[in-house]
Amino acid sequence: MKKKWMRMTALGLAAAFLVGGCSKSLPTIDEEVEVTESDKNVYDMIYFGEVSTLNYLETDTEVDYALCSNLVDSLVDYDRYGRIVPGLAESWS
After folding, report:
1. Phi, psi of 71 (to 5 degrees)
2. Distance separating alpha carbons of residues 42 and 58, to the nearest angstrom
3. pLDDT in tens, 46-73
4. What pTM does this model have?
5. Considering Cα of 51, then 56, then 62, then 68, what sign does the dihedral take?
6. How far apart are CA 75 and CA 73, in angstroms?
7. 67, 54 in Cβ contact below 8 A?
8. What 3-state DSSP class applies to 75?
9. Is the Cβ–Cβ distance between 66 and 47 less than 8 Å?
10. Are the CB atoms for 56 and 68 separated by under 8 Å?
11. Are 53 and 67 in contact (CB under 8 A)?
């Protein structure tokens, strides 16, 4: 009985892999992909949980912080060498 169950499970997994591998292929680098104007203005990002607040000052979850860090810009930023560069600030003294 156990061998029959194992065979059926293996057969089911093999069928699932076979069907999953028969999907439409992704475009290669050489192929032209038509991009519409509405596609250019869309920002898609997948998060692993529900966002509870957009207030980055009160957040305590990684999901909220990850979203807010993509929505909030600061007055100054750091470049890859650690130097302070202007963000939203136009000038300072």
Report:
1. -105, -20
2. 27
3. 767 777 888 878 888 888 887 777 778 8
4. 0.35
5. positive
6. 7
7. yes
8. coil
9. yes
10. yes
11. no
